[in-house]
Amino acid sequence: MIKILELFGGIGAPRKALINLGIEHKSIDYVEWNEKAVSTYNAMFVNRYRPESVVGYSLQPDILIHGSPCQDFSIAGKQYGGNVEDGTRSSLLFETLKIIENLGAWKPKVVIWENVKNVLSKKMIPAFNHYLSDMESLGYTNSYQVLDARDYGIPQAKERIFTVSILGNNYFDFSKLRKSPMRSIEEFLESEVDEKYIVTQPSMIKKLPGKPIVPGTFGGRMLDEVKEYVYTITTKQMRCPNSGVIRVDGEIFRYLTERECWRLMGFDDLDFDAAAKEHPSKEGCLNGTLYHQAGNSIVVSVLEAIFEVVINEDYATDLVANTEGQLELIC
């Protein structure tokens, strides 16, 4: 059995990926500060975790997965960077390093980190290089690559950097990831949609596809029309930019529904229904909680491809429990 630790765990994309792959696993713990995300996770996976910070945390997993807050690395955020000293949200990235260091001799064999590709920009890359250097000092060999959800079956233009660190001298081989054709967007869209999703706000109507560009409004940015795929699922849809709008008829457009956003992150309708029961929508209103949870998650199918290589092909072909009970990855 693979023991995983989910830091900044959100709604549990890593665990969902392992379930989809049929891999026997145990989430020995899940750490997330957002109370609503925790209640969704508990509803989906029948757990009783409570909101908790990663600061000062310690456990003994085989695989550690973390996706520290992206706001200060993101182009859409303030781009303060992930410096340890500045106290920004993204500096929580370095709490993961402290956790691994405090584990002593018992280190996770694999550490997976996901974030926005802007960490590779000129302004942000010093913090990223700092992370890589510290992981090397802890005995890990790092590999990283920007992955696009469209290459893993999901019609969403979501590009994220994934860093896979293997304890020892072996590199993770991203070329072995199993890609799959992008599925039709129609598979993810609902056939009947409530009128509350129609774009009616004057400020948003001005930004609809085909409208003249309004100078001085977010650099003249307009809303994109969804055709073959959506754009990155964001934590809010009633804003510009968002994940795109869908033409209903003529010049009438609608937003993506909450369920559609969850589907486009790789979750199924049973997952969504559990979350919606935990966080019900108000009559006539969009559900900000469910949008936020989708936008903050990792695309499940991308994690599936990574786990397949880690467990089945390269680093976990032979899983042997040592005298202390930890699984050894034979590389």
Structural class: alpha/beta
| Overall pLDDT confidence | 85
User: Widest sheet: strand order?
Assistant: 2-1-3-4-7-5
What name does the CATH topology of the largest domain carry? Answer: Rossmann fold
- State the CATH class of the largest domain: Alpha Beta
Number of domains: 2
- The CATH superfamily of the largest domain bears the name Vaccinia Virus protein VP39
**Distance between termini?**
17 Å
* Share of helical residues: 25-40%
Strand content: 15-25%
Shape verdict: globular
The tally of helices reads: 9
Specify the CATH architecture of the largest domain: 3-Layer(aba) Sandwich
Q: Largest sheet at a glance?
A: 6 strands, mixed
| N-to-C series of helices and strands | EHEHEHEHEEEHEEEHHHHEE
Gyration radius from CA atoms, angstroms: 20 Å
Poorly predicted spans: 316-321
The count of β-strands is 12
